[in-house]
Design brief:
Layout lengths: L3 H8 L6 E4 L5 E6 L7 E4 H5 L6 H4 L1 E4 L7 E3 L5 E4 L5 H4 L6 E9 L4 E10 L12 E7 L7 E4 L12 E6 L5 E7 L5 E7 L10 E10 L6 E11 L7 E2 L3 E7 L7 E4 L2 E2 L10 E6 L2 H4 L2 E3 L5 E4 L10 E9 L5 E11 L7 E7 L2 E3 L7 E8 L9 E4 L6 E7 L2 E6 L10 E10 L6 E11 L7 E2 L3 E7 L7 E4 L2 E2 L9 E6 L12 H5 E3 L5 E4 L10 E10 L6 E11 L7 E4 L10 E4 L8 E4 L1 E3 L9 E8 L5 E3 L5 E4 L10 E10 L6 E10 L3 H21 L7 H34 L1 H11 L8 E4 L2 E4 L2 E3 L3 E4 L4 E4 L4 E3 L18 H9 L7
Parallel strand pairs: 2-8, 9-15, 17-24, 26-32, 34-41, 43-50
Antiparallel strand pairs: 1-2, 3-6, 4-7, 5-6, 7-8, 10-13, 11-14, 12-13, 14-15, 16-19, 18-22, 20-23, 21-22, 23-24, 25-27, 27-30, 28-31, 29-30, 31-32, 33-36, 35-39, 37-40, 38-39, 40-41, 42-45, 44-48, 46-49, 47-48, 49-50, 51-52, 53-56, 54-55
Helix pairs in contact: 7-8, 8-10
Length: 821
């Protein structure tokens, strides 16, 4: 017989690997069996369009489904090679077409390509008989033409390499008859050609040769020993030509699978029947055992549907006389759901950015179940609450992809449990957990705790004092969540060279958000600061949020009251106020007008009379500052009355100022002069009595005041009256409308704001009229006429009460008070 290895070498050039792409996208190759290790299968790099220079980087990997891997990928040549000798009969016994399946996994592309390699048969197996020595007992009474079945030879090769013919060596008594059944199987029968004579020859030895159709031809032989026995004219007969049994693969050892039964009509020893396997595969011989006496076929090893779903064997019933009968036993193994699905993670990405688009591949999974039918059908699933889904990519491969947008701030990591469940009853399942980290992107700007901030600080604060603190949070992570603070300075009309009061007044700590004062604030100069603070994260690009901040400066009692009227002159005097001696109690002499630069209760002023020449003659309004007569003027009351008025605010502690007011009591100018003359005479007498000294300075002062007052008042009155008449005559319609538009409903006394300070301001004017008497002129002082005026905070020039200026008259005509700033 020829060497099988030599046959493989001869066939190799003719059966060199061919490949073609299947309709399903798989790559198919064909190689003969028994090739040397490292033999060329196909140029897989060329067929997949791979670049040889980048093969090691692409991560090409061969994946098989739990079976031995017979092939390897050469990264240098891009060829698919064998890793060992492949015996087709070992891996595909009884299968006409032997195909090995595996997948080529390109890990960098997360792609899978199916590969099929067909293993073609070579004539590497010679026909053989099992057993090689056969023994037949034939009665000498057997008639010519009697037939005796013989065991067929076995050849695991297929096609032309399989069993082709039988030949029996030359003898005088027997010849070989081959019958082909409906299933194409050849049945061998030894036919008696010449009667036997045990006395002549008790045994006959025959050689049966089986040959195949390979090139070169291989053959096998069996020795048949024919023992001639005495007459036994009835052979055993089986009750069924074929025994069929179905058994579950999970049946325990010792289970009776089937029972064969044969009968024999002979008597005594020729009736005793023994059962035996006539034809059985080696694998089945280790699983089943036949009781030669009872015919029971039992299990001696566990069944496995996945190894072999069907077992066929022949049993023989032989009697004591050497006659026998054959029957066929077919045992079908029913699959049980005894294999749970298997999950293999072929490729995995452990982390993805949160801004990954839907459809991003996370992992590539392979699912396999060794069971068949519904027991082998597998369904993969993941929890529906997760933002992922499984997509079937190729056969039993699944891709785990993102289903929707991810948000690290909601979920920073996922443990994805993939469950594979078969369709068996009961179903079996397996699970695998994939851990996935979500990487942060800067998709959230900082957020302040408040929509707007308001702070308060008292004036005269120390430099560097903390005013308020702002806080912003960012739900991102790491550098994307690091928040820094800065001031947004407003643009000034002066351009880049102009300095904002915000930049010179406050600063903000870039890390903590604390706002500090750079200088001491003055409420009277600055009431509030409005600015914006920006919170910016450390992402790339950075995101920011602005918030408005209002800082209110709170007032302190740091300003004393300022007396506007009567105004002090350079020599310290305040002028003289006139009051008629005939005035009734409550007569308004004058009014002390004062303001306070502070605000609130720090600017609430009160007036009180500290000192007076005649206590009880005058009183001062506590809130108004009006100096009025408290009683009627008596003859004994001195002409000149000196008053000291104290103005005090309501702060804590309170601040105050005082002013001296001189009031002259007289009804007419001659009376003033007379009084002054008497005062001068008294003063002179007192001076003469004292040694002839010079007149007292007081007399000269009073005379000068009287003359100046009368002259100024007279000329002012004439000029004012003339200007008033002319103006009323020219602007009478305008004056009427202006008066109605500006003074409607305005009270005599009202609050006026001076830099936020409210104060009562009143100015007073008196009209003077000059009447002619019989011999002398008299100057009368009627009741004063009051009007509301506003004076400046910085300076207030109040006219002498004896003078009625044109400016005062003009203001009264216009009806518009001047605003104090």
């Amino acid at each position: 017989l020829a060497d099988p290895q030599g046959a493989a070498v001869i066939l190799l050039p003719f059966l060199f690997s061919l490949f073609c792409r299947a309709v399903s996208g798989q790559i198919r190759y064909s190689i003969p069996e028994e090739m040397q290790r490292g033999s060329f299968v196909g140029n897989i790099a060329k067929d997949l369009g791979l670049d040889l220079k980048r093969l090691s980087d692409r991560g090409v990997r061969l994946v098989s489904r739990g079976k031995p891997q017979y092939f390897a990928f050469d990264y240098n040549s891009g060829h698919l090679q064998t890793t060992e000798r492949i015996d087709r009969e070992e891996i595909c016994a009884g299968v006409e077409t032997c195909v090995l399946h595996f997948e080529i996994l390109l890990q960098d592309q997360l792609k899978v390509h199916g590969v099929e390699v067909e293993i073609t048969d070579i004539n590497d197996n010679a026909p053989s008989f099992l057993p090689q020595n056969l023994e037949l007992k034939i009665s000498e009474l057997a008639t010519v033409g009697s037939r005796f079945p013989l065991q067929r030879a076995q050849d695991p090769d297929l096609g032309i390499n399989s069993l082709k013919s039988y030949q029996l060596d030359n003898n005088r008594h027997f010849f070989l008859d081959i019958q082909t059944g409906p299933d194409g199987v050849k049945h061998l029968e030894l036919v008696l050609e010449k009667s036997l004579d045990r006395e002549e020859q008790a045994t006959h030895t025959l050689i049966l040769t089986a040959t195949d159709g390979g090139d070169p031809v291989q053959s096998g032989t069996a020795q048949i020993r024919v023992i001639v026995e005495d007459a036994n004219d009835n052979a055993p007969v089986f009750s069924q030509p074929v025994y069929k049994a179905n058994i579950l693969e999970n049946q325990p050892k010792g289970t009776t699978v089937a029972t064969v039964k044969a009968t024999d009509l002979d008597e005594r020893i020729n009736k005793e029947i023994k059962y035996s396997f006539r034809k059985i595969t080696e694998k089945a011989s280790h699983i089943f055992q036949l009781d030669s006496r009872t015919g029971d076929i039992t299990l001696v090893r566990n069944l496995d549907y996945e190894e072999s779903p069907l077992h066929e064997m022949e049993v023989q019933a032989s009697d004591g006389g050497g006659l026998f009968h054959l029957s066929k036993v077919v045992i079908a193994v029913k699959d049980m759901n005894d294999n749970a699905p298997e999950i293999a993670i072929s490729s995995l990405i452990s982390s993805v950015p949160e801004d990954s688009p839907p459809g991003t591949v996370i992992a590539l999974l392979n699912v396999h179940d060794q069971d068949s039918g519904e027991n082998g059908e597998v369904t993969c699933s993941i929890p529906s609450s997760l933002p992922f889904q499984l997509k079937k990519s190729f056969e039993n491969y699944y891709s785990l992809v993102t289903d929707r947008a991810l948000d690290r701030e909601q979920e920073a990591a996922y443990n994805i449990t993939v469950t594979a469940t078969d369709h068996g009853a009961p179903p079996l399942s397996a699970s695998a957990t994939i851990s996935l980290q979500i990487l942060d992107t800067n998709d959230n700007p900082p957020r302040f705790e408040q929509a707007a901030y308001t702070g308060y600080v008292r004036e005269n604060n120390p430099r560097g004092a903390s005013i308020l603190s702002l806080q912003a949070s960012d739900p991102d992570w790491g550098e994307n969540a690091r928040v820094t603070y800065s001031l947004l300075l407003p643009l000034l009309p002066g351009g880049e060279g102009s300095e904002s009061p915000v930049s010179s007044s406050i600063s903000i700590h870039s890390e903590s958000g604390a706002v500090y004062a750079l200088r001491s604030f003055d409420y009277e100069q600055l009431r509030e600061l409005r600015f914006q603070v920006q919170a910016q994260d450390g992402g790339s690009p950075p995101l920011s949020t602005n918030v408005s901040v209002t800082l209110w400066i709170l007032d302190q009692n740091d300003n004393s009251p300022e007396i506007l009227y009567p105004a002090s002159r350079s020599d310290g005097s305040t002028g003289v106020e006139l009051a008629p001696r005939s005035s009734e109690p409550g007569y308004l002499v004058t009014k002390v007008v004062a303001v306070d630069a502070d605000s609130g209760q720090n600017a609430w002023l009160s007036y009180q009379l500290l000192k007076a020449t005649e206590p009880g003659l005058f009183r001062v309004g506590l809130q108004s500052g009006e100096i009025r007569t408290a009683r009627s003027v008596l003859d004994k009351d001195a002409l000149k009355q000196s008053l000291v008025v104290l103005v005090k605010d309501n702060g804590q502690p309170p601040l105050s100022a005082s002013v001296s007011v001189t009031v002259v009591l007289a009804d007419s100018l001659p009376q003033i002069l007379s009084e002054l003359s008497s005062l001068s005479a008294s003063a002179a007498a007192a001076a003469g009595g004292g040694g002839g000294a010079e007149p007292q300075p007081g007399l000269t002062l009073y005379l000068g005041i009287a003359v100046a007052s009368v002259s100024g008042l007279f000329f002012s009155f004439l000029l004012g009256l003339l200007a008033l008449r002319l103006r009323r005559w020219r602007n009478s319609p305008l004056l009427e409308s202006g008066a109605s538009g500006n003074f409607s409903g305005v009270p005599v006394s009202q609050f006026v704001g001076i830099d936020g300070v409210r104060a009562f301001l009143h100015s007073y004017s008196q009209e003077a009229s000059l009447t002619a008497g019989s011999r002398k002129s008299q100057l009368h002082f009627p009741q004063p006429n009051y009007s509301n005026t506003l004076s400046s905070q910085k300076s207030c020039d109040v006219k002498d009460p004896f003078l009625l200026g044109e400016e005062i008259i003009g203001n009264k005509e216009d009806g518009a008070p001047s605003q104090v700033s």
